[in-house]
Design brief:
With 310 residues, this protein is mainly alpha-helical. It has 3 domains: 57 residues, Multidrug-efflux Transporter Regulator, Chain: A, Domain 2 (Orthogonal Bundle), CATH 1.10.1660; 93 residues, no CATH class; 104 residues, no CATH class. 67% of the residues lie in helices and 1% in strands. It is built from 15 helices and 2 strands. Strands 1-2 form a two-stranded antiparallel sheet. Helix 5 runs antiparallel to helix 6, helix 9 runs antiparallel to helix 14 and helix 11 packs across helix 15.
Length: 310
Amino acid sequence: MDGGTLYTIGDLARRTGLPVRTIRFYSDRGIVPPVERSPAGYRLYDAAAAARLDLVRTLRDLGVDLVTVRKVVDRELTLAQVATAHAEALAVRIRALRVRRAVLTAVARRGSGPEEMELMHRLAGLSEDERRRLVGDFLDAAVPDAGPGTAGIRVSLTPELPDDAEPEQVEAWLELAELMADPSFRAKLHDLTTDHATDHAAGQGEGVRRDPVSRGVWAAGKALAVGVDPAAPESAPVVAAVAGEYARLLGRPDDAGLRRRLLARLTAVNDPRRERYLRLLAVINAWPPPDPSAPALDWLVTALRTHPAP
């Protein structure tokens, strides 16, 4: 368009692709006013008005409200200020949409009823402070201050849902929050933490670097990999090695009583909810997924029952 030429609303409509009624609306609001009128009373616009209309159209396409658009074209606000404010608003909106998508996806996958859907919606909409209180209450109940190492356990079990969480992280949080609210799961973790602290407080042996559960999973995993049957005599040396290290940790002999104690610990650890918690935690915190421990624990529990005494 030439700078000295005047254009009708129809000309602007053909140039921009906007409906005549939309341009007339902007004109009536004073956002894109005409520079003059023709002898017949038609509105006429110059090149500057056409450029102003292009700016208005772009801002509206980006979701900027009319009040703000007016302030931008009147130079009361800079484009940078508007862009910053709307980018922040969009970030909040995107997070809300991700949360809604995660809730709806979880509802569809589980076939949830109204009550469960309402619970998931509430859990997904918690503020950061509310999430921290929920996690804190869970850890206070499930991880008692039972001695050195407890603080590390709390940290290792703490979910940190990011503000810009992906849908799969929100879904994982929904399931994890339900687990944290399960009284029997809280009680199970409480007992596991207490047993762990008791074993290490009683420890008298030197050079025992690993928790008996970690040692057992490692040893059972090796036996499982080479096809050793846990119910066969060939599993006895593995049991002896794991029980022997546990005995050194406690400073007592490897006997039937010790193996019963070790079996009870391993059976408690081999709760599928514990492994599920750790997997969900890894998704939320963007950690590498943990190696599955259930197969090795199943193997070792069977082997210990097969060899209950040295």
